[in-house]
Amino acid sequence: MKRHKGRVSEVPREEVKITGDYGIISQGEGRITTKQIETAIMTLKRTLPSGTRIRTRIQGHLAVSEKPLEVRMGKGKGGIAKRVARVRMNTVMIEIDKRGQEPEKKYEGGLRVLGTKLPVRYKIIKRRGTDKGAGKEETEEKGETEEKEGGF
What we know:
The chain is an alpha+beta fold. The chain has a single domain (about 20-150), classed as CATH 3.90.1170.10. It has helices at about 35-45, 105-115, and strands spanning about 20-25, 30-35, 55, 60-65, 80-85, 90-95, 120-125, 135-140, 145-150. Strands 3-6-1-7-8-9 form a six-stranded antiparallel beta sheet, covered by helices on one side. A three-stranded antiparallel beta sheet has the order 2-5-4. Strand 7 (about 120-125) and strand 8 form a beta hairpin. The longest helix has 14 residues, at about 35-45. It starts with about 20 loop residues before the first strand and ends with a strand. Residues about 130-135 and about 140-150 have low confidence and may be disordered.
């Protein structure tokens, strides 16, 4: 279905619910193409240990049309060229589940590499286990680490 371009809402999402052990959330708004999402998933598969479960929480559901170059005016709207996902601030984009006793640096490093493939600013979120750190989340934004009280 062909639509107008529209704008991405600047109102951030209030609740960030993450079900995996690690996640990457957006810190800005923008449009991400399905090709960029696929590239990000392939990058994660190459960098993370085998057996890691990867979940994507965004999908390219909007069609973007283009007309070929040097085509005269008129004759309707162009054909569908690609599909995009509109991403708002604080949207969980990709989650991963840790498998085995691999060090945390591998997972965080893989998510940092993933962040370079996306056109929006990002933040890495880590959910702690049920032992002494229950109910806390740790966020990391471009190298800074802080702890926040409260659940997801």
